[in-house]
Amino acid sequence: MADTAAQSVAQTGTKRDFLKLTATAFAVVGVGAIAWPFIDSLNPARDTLALATTEVDLAPIQPGMAVTVMWRGKPVFIRHRTEQDIAAARAVKLSELKDPATDESRVQRPQWLVMIGVCTHLGCVPLGQRPTDNKGDFDGWFCPCHGSHYDTSGRIRRGPAPSNLEIPPYTFISDTQIRIG
Question: Rounded to the nearest 5°, which phi and psi values hold at 80?
């Protein structure tokens, strides 16, 4: 009889341990099932991830032409510069610039200027992308809101803007294609 009582206690302990383990496993799975949608909602949205990089085909852009593409919700100006644009940008003395930067430091290839088209003063979008736009006193870009003038390298030359137009991270995938971002 003593052996039966010992066996009964041993079996009850085993059943109790099994029930605790099973209940704990169900609780963990339940918490995970409830928490996963919340944790997944913290990931960036698909449309945001799609804008993380932008690829641009440069082949149709003729010398002297400019295009605007969107990257991370900001306009990016891409200009196929002429020899005259490049010569004008490189002829400027750094001492004349409010935010000194050489033209060579702002471009990867001399004929292609890629920059974020947002004025560094108050975030306006400067004019100068279309042939009919006012390009300012330096034949680059002009922000009519407060009168900032940028040259053919996107450097601030006159007006209240404190710095040059920003250069986004970009790489040449091929001779006629770039990836921004």
Answer: -90, 100
